[in-house]
Amino acid sequence: MQRIFQHCLLLLIFIHAPLAVAKVYVVQDGESIQDTVKKMSAGDTIKIMPGVYHESIFIDKDNISVIGVVKEGRWPVLDGKNKLYDGVLVGGHGAVIESLWVKGYKGNAIMIQGGNNYRITHNVVEGPAFYGIFPQFGKNGLVAYNSLSGVSDSSIYIGMSENVDVIHNDTYGSVLGIETENSTNILVEGNNVYGNSTGIVINLIPGLPIKSSNDVIVRNNFISANNLKNFADPGSVAASVPTGVGIWNWAVDGATIEGNIIKDNNSAGIVWADHSFIAASAISTAPDLKMDPRPDRGKILRNLYLNNGSKPATVLRDVLATAGFDKGVDVLATGKGRKNCLAERESIVDVGTKGWTECKTGETSEHIVSYQLEEPVPSPSFTPEQMGRLTYLTVCTGC
User: Fold this and answer.
1) What residues contact 314, with CB distance under 8 A and at least 6 apart?
2) Can you give the pLDDT at residue 11?
3) CB contact at 8 A, 75 and 97
4) Are 82 and 128 in contact (CB under 8 A)?
5) Which of 90, 171, 239, 337 could be disulfide-bonded to 177 (CB atoms 3.0-4.6 Å)?
6) How far apart are CA 158 and CA 171, in angstroms?
């Protein structure tokens, strides 16, 4: 009996003993963050103390938390000095990136490459990065409470992803405030998007491996005065987007636009377009025959529109002139789309929506509180070759 008891006791100890103890590393000003990352194992946390760090951080391990420590207004600052390409580049799953000030990087300020179950929160990003916060090929993510400015393409760019919430961010002074690309089940809510070239863009870009984009909700955002001169690199998708647009839907199906304050955008409040509106040559790729080029099943529900369309960009001005308008359009639809609806048509100025139905009275998306999943998704590992392929398809083909 005593031996049985001992065996049971040992079994209980074994069951409850942790397989590995997560460690917390602290990096002081003057030390190397990357040198510390090399010592870390899955599940560890690195705390970065206030100071200025001129380096790039590469993380290829799962469940790593990078937490900045802000003391008396002093931040941990990653400064690429306009020479380094990436600020933080993560190739693992379950990453947490929090409370960093990232500036002066030429490529990506914060990038999650093929990672699931990530959180990017409470960071500050300053340009001239091509992308500010850029998670791609990932599922179940959160991008929240960040402030971004001066980015030469998209401040926040959700690329080929699923089940991501983009909430309560502040984006200004960039080419595109927030962009979703070939992604599904994305919630863009409660953001302040102002002073960019274009506010929020949801799109389906030809030539990429993900061939559809569905169910993107753009809700309860403040989208104002996005009239900055477009300074994106020539030949990129961002360079082809007209300035002065509050919200732009390019061929995304099942999109819902609701509860936004959309004001002082010079070209239009909302533009709804198919692939024919932007020539294929503008994005250096031929039309994609595996894609549906039309934005279908969309809903533009109740929004507040104020002083939009006072000075349309050239390409939009030509479209409006054909329809007999020269300014002041809240909603402009061009090209072909099916089964779209518009709410409160009598209260807004709309062009190109003749074939749209009236949305049902009281229809709303508010029952969808979040697109994040209740449980973490399984996270397969990528080989270096697969990671390289993902990078090429997104960065090279898409842009």
Assistant:
1) 242
2) 41
3) no
4) yes
5) 171
6) 14
